[in-house]
C-alpha cells in the first residue's frame, strides 16, 4: 500500500531557517521577525572631532607644557593629557635686576682652592693607572666646593690635569669667549715628587 504523504511535508526539515534581529529596547512579543536579507546598522559611538577642535586642543597642551613647571620625562608623559589649562604660572618671573646679589669673591675662592688641593693631595698615594680617576674626583670636589658658597647666578666648570714628573716640559693653555666684567677663571697647581696637578675653575655668569 502506497503512502499518501505530501512530498512537500518531507522537505520542511531541509529548508534554511530565517535569521532576524530584535530591537532590545522594544517589546519582542507580537513583532514580526525580519527577513535574513535585511541588514541593520548601529550608530557609531567613536568620538569624531573636527580638525579645528583637534588643532586647538593640541595647541593648548603645548602651551601648558611650556609655561608649566619642569617635570621629569616619565611624569611629563603621564600628565601631558591631563593638563588642559594654559593659564599656568611660569617657572621664572622677571626681576628686572642685572647684577648678582651675592657676586663672586675672587681672593676668597683662590685661597680656598689652594688649601683644598693641598689638603686633598698631601696624603694621596699616586698610581699612574689611577690618574684619570684622580682628575675626575678632584674636579667634582672642586665644583662642589664652589657651589657650597652659593654665589648667585653663576655656573662652574672645573678642569683638572694630572701628569707624571719625568723631567719633561709641560704647558697648559686655555681660551674662552666671555664677559670680562662678570666671568672669571681661577687656577691652582700642586706639585709632588712624582706627579703634578693643574686645576682650573671657570666661573660663568648666568643671568
Automatic annotation (TrEMBL):
Gene3D superfamilies registered for this protein in UniProt: Tctex-1 (3.30.1140.40)
Molecular function via GO: dynein intermediate chain binding
Biased composition (Basic and acidic residues): 1-13, 32-41
GO CC annotation, single: cytoplasmic dynein complex
Gene Ontology biological-process annotations: microtubule-based movement
Record-stated family: Belongs to the dynein light chain Tctex-type family.
Identification of the protein by name: Dynein light chain
Organism the protein comes from: Anopheles minimus
Phylogenetic classification of the source organism: Eukaryota, Metazoa, Ecdysozoa, Arthropoda, Hexapoda
Amino acid at each position: 500500500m502506497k503512502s499518501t504523504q505530501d512530498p512537500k511535508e518531507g522537505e520542511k526539515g531541509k529548508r534554511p531557517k530565517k535569521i532576524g534581529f530584535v530591537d532590545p529596547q522594544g517589546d519582542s512579543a507580537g513583532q514580526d521577525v525580519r527577513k535574513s536579507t535585511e541588514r541593520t546598522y548601529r550608530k557609531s559611538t567613536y568620538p569624531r572631532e573636527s580638525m579645528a577642535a583637534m588643532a586647538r586642543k593640541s595647541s593648548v597642551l603645548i602651551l601648558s607644557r611650556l609655561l608649566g613647571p619642569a617635570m621629569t620625562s616619565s611624569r611629563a608623559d603621564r600628565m601631558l593629557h591631563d593638563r588642559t589649562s594654559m593659564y599656568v604660572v611660569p617657572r621664572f618671573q622677571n626681576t628686572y635686576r642685572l647684577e648678582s646679589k651675592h657676586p663672586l669673591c675672587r681672593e676668597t675662592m683662590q685661597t680656598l682652592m689652594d688649601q683644598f688641593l693641598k689638603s686633598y693631595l698631601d696624603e694621596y698615594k699616586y698610581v699612574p693607572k689611577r690618574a684619570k680617576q684622580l682628575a675626575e674626583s678632584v674636579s667634582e670636589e672642586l665644583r662642589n666646593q664652589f657651589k657650597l658658597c652659593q654665589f648667585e647666578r653663576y655656573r662652574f666648570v672645573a678642569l683638572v690635569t694630572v701628569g707624571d714628573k719625568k723631567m719633561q716640559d709641560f704647558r697648559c693653555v686655555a681660551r674662552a669667549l666671555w664677559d670680562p666684567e662678570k666671568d672669571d677663571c681661577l687656577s691652582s697647581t700642586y706639585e709632588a715628587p712624582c706627579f703634578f696637578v693643574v686645576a682650573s675653575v671657570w666661573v660663568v655668569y648666568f643671568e
